[in-house]
Each structure stands twice: as C-alpha cells, then as structure tokens.
Amino acid sequence: MASEQNAGIAHQIPRNSLALLMIAQLVVIVPLAQHISLWIIVVCLFCGYWRTQVYRGRWGYPAGWVKTVLVIAAVAGLAASGYRGFSLEAATSLLVLAFALKLLEMKTRRDAYVVIFLSYFLISTAFLFDQTLLLTVYQLVAAIVVTAAMVGLNQLQTRVRPVNSLRISAGLILQALPLTLVVFLLFPRIAPLWSIPVPSAASTGLSDKITPGDVARLGRSDELAFRAVFDGAVPAQRDLYWRGLVYSEFKYGTWTQGEPLDEISLADAEAKIHLDAEEFSYEIFLEPTQSKWLFSLDTPINYSARVALLGDYRLVNPEPVLSVARYQVNSATGYVMDHTLSGAMIQRETALPQGDNRRMREYAKDLYYQVGGDAQAMVQAMMSHIRNQPYVYTLNPPTLGRLDSIDQFWFDTRRGFCSHYAGAVVFALRAVDVPARMVGGYQGGEINPLTGHMVVRQYDAHAWIEVWLGNKGWTRFDPTSAVAPARVESGLDAAINDEDRAALSFLSAARLGREGLLTQALRWADSLEYRWNLWVVGYDSATQIDVLKDLFGSISAWKIGLAMMVGSGASLLLVAVAVFWRRRPQARHPAERMFQKFCRSIRHPRLRRLPEEAPLTYLIRLEKETRIDLSDLRFQLQRMLYDPDYPCGPLQRYRIRQAFRKLRFKLAFSTPTTAS
Amino acid sequence: MLAATPHKKTGSSSGLPQAAVSGERPAPLGKRFGAWLDRRIPPGQRITLSQSNIFIFPTASGFTFGGLLLILILGAINYQNSLVYGVAFLLGSMFVVTILYTFRNLSGLTLELADAEQGFVGEDIAVRVRVTRPKGGGREGIQIGWPGGFKHWVEIFDNEAALVKLYVAGEHRGWLMPGRLLVETYYPLGLLRAWTWVDVEARALVYPKPLFQDIPSTQSSRHRDDGELIDPLGSDDFVDIREYVPGDPVKNILWHSYARADEVMVKRYASYIEPRLWFDFAEVSGGTEEKLSRLTGLALQATRAGREFGLRLPGLEISPGIGQSHLDTVLKELALFNHGQ
C-alpha cells in the first residue's frame, strides 16, 4: 500500500507543473517557427490541443497504434519535405516533431524531464539561426519558464502555483548570471572539432550564382549584412566597394565563381603600392551567411590570421560563417592586383560559352574596333551608351530568356539593376578577349552616429566589374553608376523610383527615410545590437585572447585557472549571501518581540509555547491550563499584531509590557491545573 | 478462574503472529554503514541538520543534465556560437547555484520525536515527528519517511514547525524502533538530492495481535429479564442514574425526576456474575505467541464488556482491575513478555 502511494507521488506530474510545461513548450517553439515547415507547426498545435484535452480530462491518451501511425506519418512527412541532405533545418524539424509527439505521452516525471531537457536544447538551437539581442532576451524568459516547470515538479502538489514557481526560477537564473559571466569570459574557446549540419543560406543575402534573367530578389531586405568599425579615416561613400564574390564563369545565362583559386599571400605587398595610396584599417562583424566568403575593401593587404586571401583577392573564412564572424582588415587602395596575368588566368577570365547572345558579340567587336582596341575606352564607351540611351535602373526588371538574356537586356528591354549592367559589359569585354569579371558585394554603408560604426544592409548589395588593364592590373568600373549615379553616391534610396519604394518593407522605408523618430529609434537599437555583437556574440578565441591579455598581462593556464576559481568563488559567495541572508533574525513587530521574550521566560514544560503554535492559540491554551483570565491581553495582542490601523505607540507598548510582566508574575506562583 | 476452550474464528485471523520477539533496531542500511552513521550522526531526541550531517549528490536527472551541457558545449564549439556557450554556461551555473538552494532547504531544520501511538501487530502505527525550521524563509519539498515506506511531503511556511504523522508497520510485538528516518529533498530542480538519516529515538509499543474467542463464563446469577437491558451484564444491582437514551426500558425511568426537572433519567442496574475474571497464560492454548494473542483478545473483550479481570503470566501476576489504564498495563506486559532482556 504505502509503496504504491509513494510511487504515485514520485512519478506523476503535478497539474500546475504540467500547465507550465505546456506553456514552456509553446514558448520554446515560437522562435523556431520561421525555420521549419508549416505542417510541423500544425502537428505541434494538434498535439498541444490533444494534450490540453487530456489535461482537462475530456480525452484520453492516444492508443499505442495511434502513436505508431503518428510517428511513421511524421517521419514520412519529413522525408517528403525535401530538405536537402542533413541540414540544420531538417535536424531542427525532426527535433521539434519529436518534441510535439512527446506531448502525447507525457505522463510521468521522467517524461517531464525529457521534455525539459529537450526544451533547453531547442532554446540553444534557435541561436544557430539568429543571435540578436532581442532573441537572447526572449530565450532568457523562455529559460525561466522551462526552469519554472522543473521547479513545479519538486514542489508539494497543493502548493504549486505557476507564479510562485516562476518567481523561484527567475531568482535562480538571476543568481546564476554572475557565475555565467565568469565562465563565459574565461572558458577557453577552441576550433571546431568536426563538421556539422549547416543552416541553408539566407534567401535575402548575396548568392554565389547570379542569373540576371531571373526576377530580382536583391536590394529589398533591410536585414543586416555586416557592421564595420573603422580605425581612423572612413572612405568616401563612392569608394565603399565591399568585395565579397568574384564571378569568373558565365554559363547558360548564369554567372558563377568558377573553380576556386589558390590562396595567396601579400607579404611583399608594400613594393607594389603606389605612393599616393591610402590605407584603411577596420574590423568587420559579419552576420552569419552560412558561406565562407568575407567582405573587404580593395585591396586587403593585412588581415586576421584565421582568414585567407584567394587568388582573386577576396577573403575567405576557413569554415562557413554560422555565427557572427569578426575579422580585422587593412586595405590599401593603391595596390595593383595582378601586374601580369598567366595564360591560365587569361583563359579563365575571357571564357564565354559558344553561340549565345550573337547581337552582343557583334556589337562588342564593332565597338572594340571603333575605340581602337583600348579596353578602358571600350568600357567608357559602353557606359556613355548606357547614359545616353533610355536605360532604366529598376529593382523590378522584366524576366528574360536564359540563353540570350544579355542581348535582350542590352538591345530590347533596357531595364535592369546592377548585375544586368555589369553582366552586359563583362560579356562584351570577354567577347573581344579582354579579361574581365563581375564582382559581387555591397556598395556603401551608413554610419550610425551613436556609436560611429558603419552598418551595411542587404539592400546595399551590389555588383560591379573589374577589367584587367595590363600594368594597372584589375581595375574597377561600375556600369550602374552610368544609369543611376546616385546609387553609388548616396545609396539605394536615391536611386530607386517611387514604384520600387512602395514595394519596400515598412522598416526598410523607415531606415532609408529622413530623420524621424522611428529612424532614431532604429539607430539606437542598432547601436545596442552592435555593442551586443562586440562584447558577447563576437567573443571568439581571438577576442578572448585580447581581453585576457588586457586583464592579466599574459595568458597562462594557472592564471586562467586561478581567475576561474576566484571569479566563481566570488560569484557563489554573492549567491550564498542572498540565499542564506534570511537566516538572520528579522526586525519584528515590537508587540511580537515582547511576546517572544515572554515565551522564552516560561520554563514549565507544559506551559511552554510549542514551536508550531500561533501566538493566540498559545494564549488560549495557557488560559485553559492555568485558569488565569487572559482575554484582555489576548485582545490587545491580537489588535497590535494583526490590526494595521491599531496605534502602536509608547503607551500601548507600555501597557502590553506590563500585562506580560503581570502574567509572568502570576504564573510563577501558580501551577497548571490538571487538564480535565 | 478460567476455563476457556480455544475457539478459532474462521477466516479473520488465520495467520498467527509468527513473530519472533523484536528487540534490535532494524538495520536496513547495512551494518557497517549503520555503524558509520551512528558515529557520524549520533541518535538523539533533537537533531538539527547542518553541513556535518547533510549529504548532497546529483540525481539521475542531474547526470542527464550534465550530459546535455556537454552536448551544448560541443555544439557551441562546432558552430563557434557564443550564445550556445552562453546557454550551456548559464545552465551549468544554475546547477551550481542549485547546490546552495538544495542544501539550504534542509540546513537548520530540527527534527524531534513528538509522540508515538500504540497499536497491534499488523497495524500501521503512527509516530509523530516535529520538524522545526529556523527563522527566515519557509521550506518546501521536503520528504520524510522510513526507508521503504510512504514518504511524507512537508512544507513549513507560516508556522515555525510542522508535525508529521508517519506510519510504521507493526510487524512484531514489543518495542517498535523504526530506526533512522530518511529526510530528503530534491528541491528546487530535482537535479540534486540532499538527504540525511536521522535517528530521533522514536519507539512505539506494539501489542500482540489479538485473537478473539468467547469469554469463558463462570457461575452466574444472571436475572432472566434484565440481562440484556442496560448492558449485557446483568440486572440485579443498582449502578447509577443517567440520562434516558431511547431503547431504555420504560420501567426504569425515574418518573419523579421527570416531573420535577423535566429531565428524563433512568436507573441502571447491572447483574453480577462472578465479576472477577482471571486470564492465565497456562490455561490458553497454543504456543507462546498464540497464547499471548489469545490473552490480548480476552483482555480487550473483557474491557469492552466492562468486566474486571486479572492476568497471570509466568512470573508475573496483575491483580484484577478495570478500565483503560488497567488494560494499558496488561497489554504492555503482554507486549513485552519475554522481551527486552
């Protein structure tokens, strides 16, 4: 009998804790909702509804075969959802599905712990997609809710009130923060151990494929691409060409990067820099791109040791950028990229497919002949052609055919955005065997006046070209500046027309707008986010080494160990003081103090106050045991202790002290009557 | 004078107490551990919990939690994600902070024996333990119980102490010493368990399991009419006057008191058979334990019937008496017969 009851209490989930648990599950899934398929959300809601009905005693738990069918259907659904390979989205979907189905068999304490641990896991999974301050604050609240469910599991069933559990859990997490900070600062950061499923590339950012014929997707999102912090001078807006990708191959209407080039080193770079060269030093906080490419200004001659420079002068990360990447770059504007070009490189940068875009090829040959075989003159001629003919810069160009897209754009539609113009000029140059390539990245950037850092957003995405001009090396031209000079001088806002503007999202419009309250607020939020990235999200091994060197002078294992011990000790001491503080006697009500003093003075075993006795109960018992009339004293004590309006001045205190004194005197000369 | 024939009731008590006499404290914890505990946390009537007698260790969930943290840190390393590191460190720190919470939940509590009831073999016997908390915050999620038994959840918020009524199965007659009490808490997260074994020197008296049979009747002067009127005992001698209870015979009503005071009183009579019974160990049947059981049953029946009885055990004679305190004396002797040397 006893052990069964025991098992019952030990293994059941208290009702209130169950309610918290279900709220926690909801809270945890919300931030993941945008990364998983809609039908999984529907499954979650369905399971949640079912479990709620069970909770209210209306439905039963599903039978075994129903669960089996559900699991098989879920796995089949996942397989049919067409996740490519074992991506992070697929893994997350699987996890969320398991999490939802677990609802239907959440009966015991053990199940509850499984759900709680899964919840913690999902909380951290959300950070793989997004690391903003807002999400962090949200997840902190989520952690409090999940922890509260765990607290509820260990409280007496009748006592569990969600608010009480939440208060305890919030206190726990708050008190854990100092220690968290110490460990976060000191725990050594090490390089990745093995490769892992990666989230699929964001749909709003740059892509390593550009198909000008397809409808534009670029240029609209106000999502952050990266922040740059300049140490010293900031280049002019028109010189802010952030190189990220180099498109050297054109096939079937699509520009791609082609075979990656080998890593190079610019150790002897200084010899090749013009004397009037300017040098800029800056640090970049790149938002996750799920790709290896990094962004830099022309030409990176010095950069963080972890990143590499490839043969086309672009920086790459050793692994895909999955969380904010931080790197330091020094760029020299005067550096000449490739004085000489090898045969293989010429072959690579002039290659074109056979037989497409015939009109463009003819046009290019004629033009090249006209300008006397000078590549630079040819580019300028094409740009003045764009300027003089009715070309239009738009974010919504008409769709073009795949094969002859360049012909169609250049001669027929004449509407397009950066990559249309860049692509057409590169094609023309390659058609006359001038090495040329398209470069993708961002153009421009906005200084946040609050913190002075530069913000580059997805709508700053841009494409331009580089032409190899012998001694001058690769030289940048921007054909788009011919059709929309304002795009380059002052950013997207100046370049787009009203129709495009209407299509922008509310926030993009606000960011591009003039000084308004909202713009100010957004800037403020951006500053905050920047500091968040600077101190928390971007706290990688290099930053850690810098910070620790600043703190301790030099880094050694024993110093870190000592710091860890001292830091944890101090933060735990802080918590211990908070936890045990209440041990100290608290200042009590004067009447209660006198009452306690009286109680201590009573030595008779039967008359002594029992620890569990309330003051008035004790006096009633005393009255019975001794037959002394205590009704006045009782009444007075009751009013002083429990009536907030009753005055508690010196007179009242004097009276009650006298009353206790008198009673003590009486008790000393009387023995308790035997209880009848 | 007793001439009783053993009379087994069918069904109700086929199992006679097999029990050997229990005298030693049960040692469910193993002898060596028990001895170590006795040195470490000596038995006492009041035991206050402190760092010297509270043990603390992660539970299975706690170890799983540790595994989760390991996975999170591996994920943080592989994804180079500061915030995943952050989650792992936060959860780890929370675990460490919980150690203080769990420890504090038991620390400072005082346990003492309040009282214990008596019972018969085969019954659950109540032992009440008073748990007093120190000044300051309330305590909750504390479980108290004897190993293998029901665990009582305790919380102390408004008062300074709580009385916990715990039941122990009375398996053997004699002094029941339930031994060390397990006081444990998983509060607040269930990832850690703080516990201690305390011996508050609880002991309760367990009487032999009663075996009932007819009280052997002796020569009687039972009056035919009055025998069953007031009580089953008799009718001849006037006993007292008490208030009328429906069912009392009309002829016993004191009519003059009714006329005077508007109260209906009746006279009570009892008939005396040989009023003093002797229950003798030598005269009941069975082995020692069965004999004790039968004597217990007889004593209970006689008391219920309001008859005076005496008890003869080898080497002991209790002169006839009546009432609860006499019964208590008799039962105590039966419980402790050949016991506690």
Greatest interface: A-B, 75 and 60 residues
Straight-line distance between termini of chain B: 30 Å
- Helix proportion range of chain A: 40-55%
Radius of gyration of chain A: 37 Å
* Mean pLDDT metric of chain A: 82
Strand content of chain A: 5-15%
Strand segment count of chain B = 17
State the helical fraction of chain B.
25-40%
Instruction: Compute the CA-based radius of gyration of chain B.
Output: 30 Å
Identify the overall geometry of chain B: elongated
Mean pLDDT of chain B: 79
3D structure, described in words:
The complex is a heterodimer of chains A (676) and B (341). Helix content of chain A is 50%, strand content 12%. Chain A is α+β, with helices and mostly antiparallel strands and 676 residues long. Chain A has three domains: 2-154, no CATH class; 209-518, no CATH class; 590-668, no CATH class. In chain A, α12 (405-413) links the parallel β12 (392-393) and β13. The longest helix of chain A has 25 residues, at 162-186. Chain A is elongated, with a radius of gyration of 37 Å. The model of chain A is unreliable at 1-9 (pLDDT under 50). Chain B has three domains: 35-59 and 105-205, Sandwich (Immunoglobulin-like), CATH 2.60.40; 220-272, no CATH class; 276-335, no CATH class. Helices cover 27% and strands 28% of the residues of chain B. Chain B contains six helices and 17 strands. A five-stranded antiparallel beta sheet of chain B has the order 2-11-10-6-7. In chain B, strands 1-3-5-8 form a four-stranded antiparallel beta sheet, with no helix packed on it. In chain B, β16 and β17 (316-321) form a beta hairpin. In chain B, α2 (60-79) packs antiparallel against α3 and α5 runs antiparallel to α6. At the A-B interface, α1, α6, α7, α8 and α21 of A face α2, α3, β6 and β8 of B.
